[in-house]
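A favour, since you know our C-alpha coordinates better than I do. Would you make up a two-line entry for one protein for me to read? Write everything out right here, beneath this request.
=====
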Amino acid sequence: MDAIKVGLIGLGTVGAGTVTVLERNANEIARRAGREIKVVQAAVKDITKPRDCALDELELVEDPFLVVNNPEVDVVVELIGGETLAKELILQAIANGKQVVTANKALIALHGNDIFAAAQEQGVMVAFEAAVAGGISIIKAIREGMAGNRIEWLAGIINGTSNYILTELEQTGVDFAGVLKDAQDLGYAEADPTFDIEGIDAAHKLTILASIAYGVPLQFEAVFTEGITKVTHQDVLYAQELGYRVKHLGIARRTDAGLELRVHPTLIPRSRLIANVNGVMNAVVVRGDAVGSTLHYGAGAGAEPTASAVVADVVDVVRAMTADPNNRVPHLAFQPGALANLPAVAMDEVQTAFYLRLELADKTGVMAQVTDILAAANININALLQKADATQSEQSDTATAIILTEPTREGDFNAALAQIQASGSLVGEAVTFRVESLA
Protein backbone atom coordinates (compact mmCIF):
# COMPACT_ATOMS: atom_id res chain seq x y z
CA MET A 1 0.00 0.00 0.00
CA ASP A 2 1.07 3.60 -0.54
CA ALA A 3 2.35 5.52 2.47
CA ILE A 4 -0.07 7.74 4.35
CA LYS A 5 1.04 11.34 3.97
CA VAL A 6 0.71 13.69 6.92
CA GLY A 7 0.68 17.48 6.89
CA LEU A 8 1.47 19.38 10.08
CA ILE A 9 0.13 22.78 11.00
CA GLY A 10 2.71 23.98 13.50
CA LEU A 11 6.22 22.68 14.04
CA GLY A 12 6.93 23.89 17.56
CA THR A 13 7.65 21.70 20.58
CA VAL A 14 4.92 19.13 19.96
CA GLY A 15 5.20 19.28 16.17
CA ALA A 16 8.94 18.60 16.29
CA GLY A 17 8.33 15.81 18.79
CA THR A 18 5.77 14.27 16.44
CA VAL A 19 8.20 14.28 13.52
CA THR A 20 10.91 12.76 15.72
CA VAL A 21 8.71 9.96 17.06
CA LEU A 22 7.33 9.10 13.62
CA GLU A 23 10.84 8.91 12.19
CA ARG A 24 12.53 7.10 15.08
CA ASN A 25 9.78 4.48 15.45
CA ALA A 26 8.81 4.29 11.78
CA ASN A 27 9.06 0.51 11.49
CA GLU A 28 7.08 -0.21 14.66
CA ILE A 29 4.43 2.34 13.71
CA ALA A 30 4.08 0.90 10.20
CA ARG A 31 3.66 -2.59 11.66
CA ARG A 32 0.87 -1.31 13.90
CA ALA A 33 -0.87 0.87 11.32
CA GLY A 34 -0.45 -1.51 8.39
CA ARG A 35 1.03 1.26 6.27
CA GLU A 36 4.01 3.58 6.30
CA ILE A 37 3.30 7.04 7.71
CA LYS A 38 5.33 10.00 6.45
CA VAL A 39 5.21 13.70 7.30
CA VAL A 40 5.55 15.47 3.95
CA GLN A 41 4.63 19.08 4.67
CA ALA A 42 4.49 21.47 7.62
CA ALA A 43 3.19 25.01 7.97
CA VAL A 44 5.35 27.30 10.13
CA LYS A 45 5.49 31.00 10.86
CA ASP A 46 9.18 31.32 10.00
CA ILE A 47 10.78 28.93 7.51
CA THR A 48 14.31 30.05 8.49
CA LYS A 49 13.93 29.21 12.21
CA PRO A 50 15.97 26.18 13.39
CA ARG A 51 13.84 23.13 14.28
CA ASP A 52 14.35 20.39 16.87
CA CYS A 53 13.72 17.62 14.38
CA ALA A 54 15.01 16.26 11.08
CA LEU A 55 13.64 18.11 8.05
CA ASP A 56 14.63 15.58 5.36
CA GLU A 57 11.94 15.36 2.66
CA LEU A 58 9.75 17.69 4.72
CA GLU A 59 8.49 20.73 2.85
CA LEU A 60 8.06 23.86 4.98
CA VAL A 61 5.46 26.46 4.01
CA GLU A 62 4.24 29.61 5.71
CA ASP A 63 0.62 29.44 4.57
CA PRO A 64 -1.24 26.75 6.55
CA PHE A 65 -3.98 26.59 3.92
CA LEU A 66 -1.42 25.08 1.54
CA VAL A 67 -1.37 22.08 3.88
CA VAL A 68 -5.13 21.59 4.29
CA ASN A 69 -5.67 22.09 0.53
CA ASN A 70 -2.77 19.87 -0.54
CA PRO A 71 -4.26 16.95 -2.50
CA GLU A 72 -1.28 14.78 -1.52
CA VAL A 73 -1.94 15.12 2.23
CA ASP A 74 -4.17 12.42 3.73
CA VAL A 75 -4.08 13.45 7.40
CA VAL A 76 -3.86 17.01 8.76
CA VAL A 77 -2.38 17.40 12.25
CA GLU A 78 -3.24 20.76 13.85
CA LEU A 79 -0.81 21.89 16.58
CA ILE A 80 -1.03 25.69 16.59
CA GLY A 81 -3.65 26.11 19.31
CA GLY A 82 -6.11 28.97 19.56
CA GLU A 83 -9.62 29.03 18.21
CA THR A 84 -10.26 31.19 15.16
CA LEU A 85 -7.61 30.15 12.64
CA ALA A 86 -7.40 26.59 13.93
CA LYS A 87 -11.17 26.14 13.57
CA GLU A 88 -11.13 27.54 10.04
CA LEU A 89 -8.26 25.25 9.04
CA ILE A 90 -9.82 22.13 10.53
CA LEU A 91 -13.21 22.78 8.93
CA GLN A 92 -11.47 23.32 5.57
CA ALA A 93 -9.53 20.08 5.98
CA ILE A 94 -12.78 18.26 6.77
CA ALA A 95 -14.49 19.82 3.75
CA ASN A 96 -11.60 18.51 1.65
CA GLY A 97 -12.25 15.00 2.95
CA LYS A 98 -9.07 14.79 5.04
CA GLN A 99 -8.69 13.03 8.38
CA VAL A 100 -7.79 15.39 11.23
CA VAL A 101 -5.73 15.04 14.41
CA THR A 102 -5.56 17.90 16.91
CA ALA A 103 -4.09 18.62 20.35
CA ASN A 104 -6.24 21.74 20.72
CA LYS A 105 -8.32 21.34 23.89
CA ALA A 106 -9.83 24.83 23.77
CA LEU A 107 -11.00 24.31 20.20
CA ILE A 108 -12.60 20.94 20.99
CA ALA A 109 -14.19 22.16 24.23
CA LEU A 110 -15.68 25.28 22.64
CA HIS A 111 -16.37 24.22 19.05
CA GLY A 112 -16.16 20.44 19.07
CA ASN A 113 -19.90 19.91 18.59
CA ASP A 114 -19.80 21.78 15.25
CA ILE A 115 -16.51 20.19 14.18
CA PHE A 116 -17.70 16.65 14.90
CA ALA A 117 -20.97 17.27 13.07
CA ALA A 118 -19.02 18.43 10.00
CA ALA A 119 -16.75 15.39 10.21
CA GLN A 120 -19.72 13.06 10.54
CA GLU A 121 -21.29 14.55 7.43
CA GLN A 122 -18.07 14.15 5.43
CA GLY A 123 -17.34 10.66 6.77
CA VAL A 124 -13.92 11.61 8.19
CA MET A 125 -12.42 11.37 11.66
CA VAL A 126 -11.25 14.04 14.08
CA ALA A 127 -8.93 12.52 16.71
CA PHE A 128 -7.93 14.49 19.81
CA GLU A 129 -6.24 12.24 22.39
CA ALA A 130 -3.42 14.76 22.87
CA ALA A 131 -5.91 17.49 23.87
CA VAL A 132 -6.21 16.08 27.41
CA ALA A 133 -3.39 15.03 29.75
CA GLY A 134 -0.64 14.83 27.14
CA GLY A 135 0.85 11.35 27.08
CA ILE A 136 -1.88 9.71 29.20
CA SER A 137 -4.30 7.86 26.91
CA ILE A 138 -7.24 8.89 29.06
CA ILE A 139 -9.66 9.57 26.21
CA LYS A 140 -9.15 6.12 24.71
CA ALA A 141 -9.31 4.55 28.19
CA ILE A 142 -12.74 6.04 28.91
CA ARG A 143 -14.16 5.91 25.39
CA GLU A 144 -13.10 2.35 24.57
CA GLY A 145 -11.54 0.60 27.56
CA MET A 146 -14.46 1.45 29.86
CA ALA A 147 -17.23 1.17 27.26
CA GLY A 148 -18.98 -1.47 29.38
CA ASN A 149 -19.23 0.80 32.42
CA ARG A 150 -21.59 3.39 33.72
CA ILE A 151 -19.17 6.12 34.79
CA GLU A 152 -20.05 7.31 38.28
CA TRP A 153 -17.43 10.05 38.63
CA LEU A 154 -14.02 11.15 37.49
CA ALA A 155 -11.51 13.49 39.11
CA GLY A 156 -8.27 14.64 37.59
CA ILE A 157 -5.12 16.68 38.04
CA ILE A 158 -5.16 17.82 34.43
CA ASN A 159 -3.00 20.94 34.50
CA GLY A 160 0.68 20.44 35.24
CA THR A 161 1.40 24.10 35.94
CA SER A 162 -1.09 24.39 38.80
CA ASN A 163 0.03 21.03 40.20
CA TYR A 164 3.65 22.17 40.15
CA ILE A 165 2.74 25.38 41.98
CA LEU A 166 0.76 23.56 44.69
CA THR A 167 3.57 21.02 45.13
CA GLU A 168 6.15 23.79 45.55
CA LEU A 169 3.90 25.72 47.95
CA GLU A 170 3.82 22.62 50.12
CA GLN A 171 7.47 21.61 49.89
CA THR A 172 9.32 24.93 49.85
CA GLY A 173 7.18 27.41 51.76
CA VAL A 174 7.79 30.05 49.08
CA ASP A 175 4.78 32.31 48.56
CA PHE A 176 2.48 31.98 45.56
CA ALA A 177 4.08 34.80 43.54
CA GLY A 178 7.54 33.32 44.06
CA VAL A 179 6.52 29.81 43.04
CA LEU A 180 4.72 31.17 39.97
CA LYS A 181 7.86 33.03 38.90
CA ASP A 182 9.90 29.83 39.32
CA ALA A 183 7.37 27.98 37.16
CA GLN A 184 7.70 30.65 34.48
CA ASP A 185 11.50 30.56 34.63
CA LEU A 186 11.42 26.77 34.19
CA GLY A 187 9.03 26.99 31.25
CA TYR A 188 6.15 25.32 33.10
CA ALA A 189 4.02 28.48 33.07
CA GLU A 190 3.37 30.97 30.30
CA ALA A 191 4.24 34.66 30.59
CA ASP A 192 0.47 35.13 31.02
CA PRO A 193 -0.44 32.17 33.28
CA THR A 194 -4.14 33.00 33.58
CA PHE A 195 -5.46 29.93 31.75
CA ASP A 196 -3.46 27.64 34.05
CA ILE A 197 -3.76 29.21 37.48
CA GLU A 198 -7.40 30.25 37.08
CA GLY A 199 -8.47 26.78 35.96
CA ILE A 200 -9.57 27.62 32.42
CA ASP A 201 -7.22 25.12 30.80
CA ALA A 202 -8.40 22.39 33.19
CA ALA A 203 -12.03 23.33 32.47
CA HIS A 204 -11.45 22.84 28.74
CA LYS A 205 -10.09 19.37 29.42
CA LEU A 206 -12.84 18.48 31.91
CA THR A 207 -15.44 19.47 29.32
CA ILE A 208 -13.99 16.88 26.93
CA LEU A 209 -13.66 14.13 29.53
CA ALA A 210 -17.21 14.64 30.79
CA SER A 211 -18.67 14.46 27.28
CA ILE A 212 -16.90 11.16 26.64
CA ALA A 213 -17.75 9.73 30.05
CA TYR A 214 -21.44 10.63 30.01
CA GLY A 215 -22.38 10.92 26.35
CA VAL A 216 -23.42 14.57 26.55
CA PRO A 217 -22.68 17.42 24.14
CA LEU A 218 -19.60 19.49 24.94
CA GLN A 219 -20.69 22.25 27.33
CA PHE A 220 -17.75 24.32 28.54
CA GLU A 221 -20.05 27.10 29.71
CA ALA A 222 -21.53 24.77 32.33
CA VAL A 223 -18.21 24.13 34.11
CA PHE A 224 -17.75 25.90 37.45
CA THR A 225 -14.17 27.18 37.49
CA GLU A 226 -12.07 28.42 40.40
CA GLY A 227 -8.31 29.01 40.38
CA ILE A 228 -5.54 28.40 42.90
CA THR A 229 -4.42 31.96 43.61
CA LYS A 230 -5.88 32.05 47.13
CA VAL A 231 -4.08 28.86 48.27
CA THR A 232 -1.35 29.68 50.78
CA HIS A 233 1.51 27.68 52.27
CA GLN A 234 -0.23 27.91 55.64
CA ASP A 235 -3.44 26.37 54.27
CA VAL A 236 -1.42 23.54 52.75
CA LEU A 237 0.18 22.87 56.16
CA TYR A 238 -3.18 22.96 57.94
CA ALA A 239 -4.55 20.50 55.36
CA GLN A 240 -1.60 18.20 56.06
CA GLU A 241 -2.27 18.34 59.78
CA LEU A 242 -5.84 17.25 59.09
CA GLY A 243 -4.64 14.36 56.89
CA TYR A 244 -5.21 15.98 53.48
CA ARG A 245 -3.32 17.47 50.57
CA VAL A 246 -4.49 20.32 48.35
CA LYS A 247 -4.84 19.59 44.63
CA HIS A 248 -6.43 21.50 41.77
CA LEU A 249 -9.00 19.01 40.53
CA GLY A 250 -11.39 18.79 37.63
CA ILE A 251 -14.41 16.80 38.82
CA ALA A 252 -17.35 15.38 36.88
CA ARG A 253 -20.01 13.39 38.72
CA ARG A 254 -23.37 11.99 37.70
CA THR A 255 -26.10 12.60 40.32
CA ASP A 256 -29.86 12.19 40.42
CA ALA A 257 -30.13 15.93 39.74
CA GLY A 258 -27.83 15.89 36.71
CA LEU A 259 -24.14 16.35 36.02
CA GLU A 260 -21.65 18.13 38.26
CA LEU A 261 -18.87 19.86 36.31
CA ARG A 262 -16.36 21.74 38.42
CA VAL A 263 -12.70 22.77 38.64
CA HIS A 264 -11.38 24.07 41.95
CA PRO A 265 -8.74 23.59 44.67
CA THR A 266 -9.71 20.50 46.64
CA LEU A 267 -8.56 18.84 49.83
CA ILE A 268 -8.21 15.08 49.30
CA PRO A 269 -7.05 12.44 51.81
CA ARG A 270 -3.31 11.84 51.74
CA SER A 271 -3.98 8.10 51.47
CA ARG A 272 -5.40 8.50 47.95
CA LEU A 273 -2.89 7.74 45.19
CA ILE A 274 -3.85 10.88 43.29
CA ALA A 275 -2.98 12.98 46.36
CA ASN A 276 0.64 11.93 45.86
CA VAL A 277 0.92 13.09 42.26
CA ASN A 278 3.46 15.91 42.36
CA GLY A 279 5.18 18.44 40.14
CA VAL A 280 4.01 18.78 36.56
CA MET A 281 2.60 15.26 36.35
CA ASN A 282 -1.05 14.58 35.54
CA ALA A 283 -3.42 11.91 36.85
CA VAL A 284 -7.08 11.04 36.40
CA VAL A 285 -9.19 8.73 38.58
CA VAL A 286 -12.25 7.26 36.85
CA ARG A 287 -14.88 5.34 38.80
CA GLY A 288 -16.95 2.88 36.79
CA ASP A 289 -19.74 0.73 38.20
CA ALA A 290 -18.17 -2.48 36.88
CA VAL A 291 -14.43 -1.85 37.07
CA GLY A 292 -14.35 0.29 40.21
CA SER A 293 -11.75 3.07 40.52
CA THR A 294 -8.91 3.25 37.98
CA LEU A 295 -5.95 5.64 38.10
CA HIS A 296 -4.31 6.93 34.92
CA TYR A 297 -0.98 8.69 35.53
CA GLY A 298 1.77 10.21 33.41
CA ALA A 299 3.31 13.27 31.80
CA GLY A 300 0.65 15.79 30.89
CA ALA A 301 2.85 17.88 28.59
CA GLY A 302 6.21 17.95 26.85
CA ALA A 303 7.41 17.30 23.32
CA GLU A 304 7.48 13.52 23.15
CA PRO A 305 4.79 12.63 25.73
CA THR A 306 2.29 14.76 23.81
CA ALA A 307 3.71 13.54 20.48
CA SER A 308 3.05 10.00 21.72
CA ALA A 309 -0.66 10.80 21.89
CA VAL A 310 -0.61 12.61 18.53
CA VAL A 311 1.06 9.66 16.80
CA ALA A 312 -1.34 7.21 18.44
CA ASP A 313 -4.20 9.24 16.97
CA VAL A 314 -2.57 9.19 13.53
CA VAL A 315 -2.24 5.40 13.76
CA ASP A 316 -5.91 5.07 14.80
CA VAL A 317 -6.97 7.27 11.90
CA VAL A 318 -4.93 5.25 9.41
CA ARG A 319 -6.40 1.99 10.69
CA ALA A 320 -9.93 3.32 10.35
CA MET A 321 -9.59 5.03 6.98
CA THR A 322 -10.85 1.98 5.10
CA ALA A 323 -13.62 1.23 7.60
CA ASP A 324 -17.26 2.09 7.13
CA PRO A 325 -17.67 5.52 8.82
CA ASN A 326 -20.77 4.24 10.62
CA ASN A 327 -18.72 1.52 12.31
CA ARG A 328 -15.92 3.71 13.65
CA VAL A 329 -15.51 4.61 17.31
CA PRO A 330 -17.71 7.72 17.80
CA HIS A 331 -15.93 10.99 18.54
CA LEU A 332 -17.63 11.39 21.92
CA ALA A 333 -17.84 7.64 22.69
CA PHE A 334 -21.62 7.47 22.21
CA GLN A 335 -23.32 7.35 18.83
CA PRO A 336 -24.06 10.90 17.58
CA GLY A 337 -27.81 10.40 17.70
CA ALA A 338 -27.66 8.98 21.23
CA LEU A 339 -26.13 11.90 23.11
CA ALA A 340 -28.06 12.74 26.29
CA ASN A 341 -29.05 16.15 27.58
CA LEU A 342 -28.17 15.73 31.24
CA PRO A 343 -28.69 19.06 33.02
CA ALA A 344 -25.70 20.66 34.70
CA VAL A 345 -26.10 20.84 38.47
CA ALA A 346 -25.89 24.38 39.90
CA MET A 347 -23.04 24.79 42.38
CA ASP A 348 -25.47 25.71 45.17
CA GLU A 349 -26.90 22.19 44.88
CA VAL A 350 -23.55 20.37 44.97
CA GLN A 351 -22.93 18.26 48.07
CA THR A 352 -19.36 18.43 49.36
CA ALA A 353 -17.42 18.86 52.58
CA PHE A 354 -15.59 22.12 53.27
CA TYR A 355 -12.34 23.39 54.74
CA LEU A 356 -12.96 26.72 56.46
CA ARG A 357 -10.21 28.96 57.86
CA LEU A 358 -11.31 31.86 60.00
CA GLU A 359 -9.31 34.64 61.66
CA LEU A 360 -11.44 35.37 64.72
CA ALA A 361 -11.45 38.03 67.35
CA ASP A 362 -9.94 36.40 70.46
CA LYS A 363 -12.94 36.95 72.70
CA THR A 364 -15.04 34.69 74.87
CA GLY A 365 -17.96 33.12 73.02
CA VAL A 366 -16.77 33.89 69.49
CA MET A 367 -16.00 30.27 68.60
CA ALA A 368 -19.28 29.14 70.13
CA GLN A 369 -21.10 31.69 67.97
CA VAL A 370 -19.50 30.22 64.83
CA THR A 371 -20.37 26.64 65.75
CA ASP A 372 -23.93 27.67 66.64
CA ILE A 373 -24.39 29.22 63.19
CA LEU A 374 -23.13 26.05 61.52
CA ALA A 375 -25.31 23.85 63.70
CA ALA A 376 -28.39 25.93 62.93
CA ALA A 377 -27.71 25.29 59.22
CA ASN A 378 -27.41 21.54 59.91
CA ILE A 379 -23.71 21.63 59.05
CA ASN A 380 -21.77 19.10 61.13
CA ILE A 381 -18.14 19.65 62.07
CA ASN A 382 -15.77 16.78 61.31
CA ALA A 383 -12.58 18.36 62.71
CA LEU A 384 -11.57 21.58 64.41
CA LEU A 385 -8.14 23.14 64.92
CA GLN A 386 -7.53 26.31 66.88
CA LYS A 387 -4.19 28.07 66.38
CA ALA A 388 -2.54 31.09 67.86
CA ASP A 389 -1.51 33.52 65.14
CA ALA A 390 2.21 32.85 64.75
CA THR A 391 2.65 36.09 62.83
CA GLN A 392 1.44 38.19 65.73
CA SER A 393 2.89 39.00 69.13
CA GLU A 394 1.85 37.13 72.26
CA GLN A 395 -0.63 39.92 72.96
CA SER A 396 -2.44 39.32 69.67
CA ASP A 397 -6.19 39.73 69.89
CA THR A 398 -6.90 37.26 67.05
CA ALA A 399 -6.84 33.48 66.74
CA THR A 400 -7.09 31.12 63.79
CA ALA A 401 -9.78 28.44 63.60
CA ILE A 402 -9.69 25.72 60.95
CA ILE A 403 -12.92 23.78 60.55
CA LEU A 404 -13.52 20.69 58.44
CA THR A 405 -17.22 20.08 57.84
CA GLU A 406 -19.14 16.96 56.93
CA PRO A 407 -20.60 16.95 53.39
CA THR A 408 -23.31 19.56 53.03
CA ARG A 409 -25.21 21.41 50.33
CA GLU A 410 -23.04 24.27 49.04
CA GLY A 411 -25.90 26.77 49.12
CA ASP A 412 -26.46 26.04 52.83
CA PHE A 413 -22.76 26.39 53.58
CA ASN A 414 -22.55 29.72 51.75
CA ALA A 415 -25.59 31.03 53.64
CA ALA A 416 -24.03 30.04 56.97
CA LEU A 417 -20.71 31.58 55.93
CA ALA A 418 -22.49 34.84 55.11
CA GLN A 419 -23.95 34.85 58.65
CA ILE A 420 -20.51 34.24 60.16
CA GLN A 421 -19.03 37.09 58.11
CA ALA A 422 -21.86 39.39 59.19
CA SER A 423 -21.49 38.51 62.88
CA GLY A 424 -18.59 40.88 63.49
CA SER A 425 -16.39 38.07 64.81
CA LEU A 426 -14.14 37.79 61.75
CA VAL A 427 -10.90 39.61 61.15
CA GLY A 428 -10.51 39.71 57.37
CA GLU A 429 -12.09 37.32 54.88
CA ALA A 430 -12.82 33.64 55.47
CA VAL A 431 -10.88 31.14 53.34
CA THR A 432 -12.76 28.10 52.05
CA PHE A 433 -11.87 25.07 49.94
CA ARG A 434 -13.94 22.06 49.02
CA VAL A 435 -13.07 18.60 50.34
CA GLU A 436 -13.54 15.33 48.44
CA SER A 437 -12.95 11.82 49.79
CA LEU A 438 -12.80 10.25 46.29
CA ALA A 439 -13.94 7.04 47.95
